[in-house]
Amino acid sequence: MPVSEAMISGMFDLNRAGEEGLAAQLTSQLRGLIASGRIGKGQALPSSRRLASDLGVSRNTVTYAFEQLAAEGYLETSHGRRPAVTVDGGEHIESAGGAASRVRSAKPRLSPWASKLSQMDWPMSYLAPLRPLRPGHGDFREFPNEVWARCLRRSAVRAGRRELGPINRPRLREALAHYLATSRGVRATADQIMILPSAQAALTLIAATLITPGDDVWVEDPGYPGAAAAFRASGARVIGVGLDQQGMQRMSGTAAPTLIFMTPSHQHPTGRLMSLARRTEFLNASRPGKTWIVEDDYDGEFHYDSRPVPALQGLDAHGRVFYVGTFSKAMMSDIRLGYLVVPPAMVATLEVAQRHIGLMAASHIQEALAEFIADGHFLAHVRRMRRIYHARRDHLVDGLQRHLGELLSVEVPAGGIQLVARFKRSRADRAAVKRLVEAGVETRALSSLSLGRPRDQGLLLGFAAWRESEISAAVRTMESCF
Ligand SMILES: Cc1ncc(COP(=O)(O)O)c(C=O)c1O
């Protein structure tokens, strides 16, 4: 199926800080996209001018890639026309001495799950290397690497003496159960806690164990696209539910869904806090064993204006709530550790599924994290970052109101790592994001987080990962762009 020029431009991920030049990266990525069949035979590519502008590279870089792949037989180029793909990725393409030779083989038949995923792309990917004000990140420059390294070292040294034990390490489960009870009001015993490589792994595991194709799943709209993707790939009918000031709304008059996904502590992306009344409404409406609630508390550690509101999970007396957390915001983006608190009735099923899918985290890292938490380093880091992020949030809010107040209205979140600024007058947010990226400021279009027709146009801006001087510079850039 032909794909649009914009989709093709979105398929590249160039690393400007890497050692490999941009032209070489572009050439090999384009070759890979054709060889894998993601860009099919006959597909016209964007013009060199258009692709260069979409990717923020020079036209020479794109021309180099086109000419190289034309020489290798992947593309046909002729003057004045857009280059077209000449080979079918369904054919196995082998490179021998730089020349492409082709052997026929059938296109792989994918499972329904993989076919759904292959139509999606990872919804949160970005083109450029990390730049202000990309949302979704904490500041890994502030992480106490020396302390963490000592925990890792001690754990690695002990590894030879450790029993081959449970895949969810008891020490970490205990440390987390205690931390979650005291800091987030989560009520769980240690054996309800699973240690996973990410929050996304938790969502995939829940979807794999609870969704029958055709089931209804409610998600917040706008919301976190990674969750919608996980449920949709399992065959669910994903239904976007709007928000009001109290958070996700309850839909009445519709059949109860199998699952409701929500981010009640800081709604993603708006940062809104779900009111107690709304939490109780959702809990009362979800029947044990029939309608499950998935509470994603991805950045609940960071609250600034009031005492943190305890997790919804802690209000649930009937085992209806899965509680998902991640260390990728509170520690480092690439630490690749998350966790899932499982309702008692589902523990055995989830543990078997975890082993079969292989969603386990390395034992020595789990042990190191258990020590990091038990010795108080995690809480100390969170407390320190809470102060820093609080100041950064205020700095960004102040900068936006002062310099862009006529254009943008800022929704000040009570916590979290990012905020939403809406355009006061209608404006295409995706075009604005593109323009900002070209100028060196990375944001996400609010409309890209909507499931259906976007209700609002605006920008999702990260403040936690950026120093105040970086935030000020980004706001000045935004001002000059608009
Ligand atoms: C709401 C929400 N949930 C989960 C995640 C993903 O966490 P992880 O990296 O652990 O999969 C993110 C990441 O941006 C998020 O914004």
UniProtKB/TrEMBL annotation:
Pfam family, one: Aminotran_1_2
Keywords: Aminotransferase, DNA-binding, Pyridoxal phosphate, Transcription, Transcription regulation, Transferase
The organism of origin for this protein: Bradyrhizobium hipponense
A GO molecular-function descriptor: DNA-binding transcription factor activity
Keyword Phosphoprotein assigned: no
PROSITE patterns given in the database record: HTH_GNTR
Family, similarity comment: In the C-terminal section; belongs to the class-I pyridoxal-phosphate-dependent aminotransferase family.
Name the UniProt record assigns to this protein: PLP-dependent aminotransferase family protein
Tree of life domain: Bacteria
Domain HTH gntR-type residue range list: 20-88
